[in-house]
């Protein structure tokens, strides 16, 4: 039985994970589901809909309802910014969506995990609905070294030809570049394809080449915006 005096309210666990892209929010949700031995259903605003009627019908539909509302499951609403943004007088449609979502949170009785990288636009009404909020700071060099190391340790499972000694020796060099966890994974994937294309054993040089290619794109975006992604988000008070 929940502690709310109105039957059916306040019986769920609502968790908010906030931070920049690639800092571990989705991985945390997956780890929670694994630890609890429950299925994790990942949904986005595209699955739910962005019209007030769609939000109410999809999320509050009666049993058996959507598969992600099954009893015992953990629901991950990834990039929930559409539903969490602060209301305004100029956008009544958005206000209606947020109001409906607030009501949904009141009566949800399972484990719901929300992720956002725009906590600065968070509507204050959600604060009292969230039981646990965890912030994910930008990765530092030590964090990146651990992530690089974890991914490299997984490479032998791929059956690729890998020079593990060379990669492990150069991990500190790779960790110096300020990139997030998702970018690290993408660079390793790119390096694997590069090594296969060249018919070579995967080693540090392939990682370096893939990293340089990724950096060129990031540098171009920074040049276009005039600031880095973190500085831009800070200037817009998003996180």
Write up what this structure looks like:
The structure is a single chain. By secondary structure, this protein is an alpha/beta fold. It has 2 domains: 124 residues, 3-Layer(aba) Sandwich (Rossmann fold); 85 residues. 48% of the residues lie in helices and 11% in strands. It has a 5-stranded parallel beta sheet. The protein starts with 12 loop residues before the first strand and ends with a helix. 25% of the residues are buried. About 3% of the residues have low confidence. It comes from Fusarium vanettenii (strain ATCC MYA-4622 / CBS 123669 / FGSC 9596 / NRRL 45880 / 77-13-4). This is AAA+ ATPase domain-containing protein. Keywords: ATP-binding, Nucleotide-binding. One of its GO terms (molecular function) is ATP hydrolysis activity.
Provide the descriptors you would attach to this structure in a database record.
elongated; 2 domains; 5-stranded parallel β-sheet; alpha/beta; 11% strand; 11 helices; 5 strands; 239 residues; Rossmann fold
């Amino acid at each position: 039985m929940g502690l709310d005096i109105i039957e059916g309210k306040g019986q769920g666990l609502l968790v908010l994970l906030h931070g920049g892209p690639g800092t571990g929010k989705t991985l945390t949700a997956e780890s929670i589901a694994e630890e609890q031995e429950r299925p994790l259903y990942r949904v986005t605003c595209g699955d739910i809909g962005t019209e007030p009627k769609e939000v109410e019908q999809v999320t509050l539909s009666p049993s058996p309802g959507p598969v992600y509302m099954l009893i015992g499951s953990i629901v991950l609403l990834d990039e929930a910014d559409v539903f969490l943004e602060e209301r305004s007088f100029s956008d009544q449609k958005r206000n209606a969506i947020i109001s409906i979502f607030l009501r949904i949170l009141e009566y949800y009785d399972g484990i719901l995990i929300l992720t956002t990288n725009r906590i600065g636009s968070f509507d204050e009404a959600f604060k009292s609905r969230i039981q646990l909020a965890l912030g994910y700071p930008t990765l530092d060099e030590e964090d990146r070294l651990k992530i690089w190391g974890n991914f490299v340790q997984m490479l032998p499972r791929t059956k690729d030809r890998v020079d593990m000694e060379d990669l492990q020796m150069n991990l500190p060099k790779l960790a110096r570049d300020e990139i997030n966890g998702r970018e690290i994974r993408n660079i390793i994937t790119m390096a694997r394809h590069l090594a296969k294309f060249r018919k070579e054993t995967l080693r540090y040089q392939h990682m370096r080449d893939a990293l340089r290619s990724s950096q060129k794109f990031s540098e171009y975006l920074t040049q276009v915006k005039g600031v880095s992604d973190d500085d831009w988000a800070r200037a817009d008070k998003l996180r």
